[in-house]
Structure of Trehalose 6-phosphate phosphatase:
Amino acid sequence: MRIHLPPAASISWSYFLDVDGTLIDIADTPDAACIDASLLDLIARLYRASGGAVALVSGRALSDLENRLGALRLPLAGQHGLERRDAAGRLWIHAAPPAAKHAIKQALAPALARHPGLLLEDKGLTLALHYRQAPHLAAYARRSMVRLANDANAGLEVQFGKRVAEVKPSGIDKGTAISEYLAESPFRGRRPVFIGDDLNDEHGFAEVNRLDGISIKVGHGSSCARYRLPDVTAARQWLDNALQEVT
Ligand SMILES: O=P(O)(O)OC[C@H]1O[C@H](O[C@H]2O[C@H](CO)[C@@H](O)[C@H](O)[C@H]2O)[C@H](O)[C@@H](O)[C@@H]1O
């Protein structure tokens, strides 16, 4: 992999940070992933030093992120931007739970019972079918979610990610979440940075590229991001370096 390292980070920029695979290593299951104390400290320091211009932009649900962050409160976009808490603490919800959600869950129930390696994550507005514990079922899981989204005929789309296929309302993504933040204080007027690792981060990279910001892909795989960092450790180190400006 050819690595185009990003320029040195500046605390005058706006920081949009993906979570799984970017700030924390991928774990076997969604629940097993852990935001450790040193990451909490890094985010808190960056948040203070940048005047609050830090948001987590994640596929996880807001409530899930909140539980993992404990007392640390900052802007959060969850479920790929479908729900967003802004810097003033206001909550923006961009879609209702899909009417077809119950039917999709029912349709998946036999496969989930048959294959314990499949895991269904109901995030409220989206349904994610994880196959990390059953990688041989990748094609089946992806195909099933595409079929169920199409059959619902209700403005749903499938977002693929690391060993996951997710049915979600279409039209909102991490790119729209970033552009909403950038219209608001304290993000407005700052150069945007987005760091991510997964397919669902490509919308965010594209938006940041459009604004001449800094898009950084963590790890391998094709991407429209302009820069690369090899892994979670390097991503955290790059952010920590921004804080050297202020110490
Ligand atoms: O946008 P992110 O913050 O990166 O969240 C993306 C998805 O992360 C979680 O799933 C992924 O991480 C799990 C734990 O490491 C892993 O087991 C799974 O295979 C990955 O797909 C989360 O469960 C999803 O809801 C997020 O969309």
User: Anything to note?
Assistant: The radius of gyration is 18 Å. The chain has two domains: 14-94+172-246, 101-169. Residues 14-94+172-246 form a domain with the Rossmann fold fold (CATH 3.40.50.1000). The CA atoms of residues 59 and 79 lie 4 Å apart.
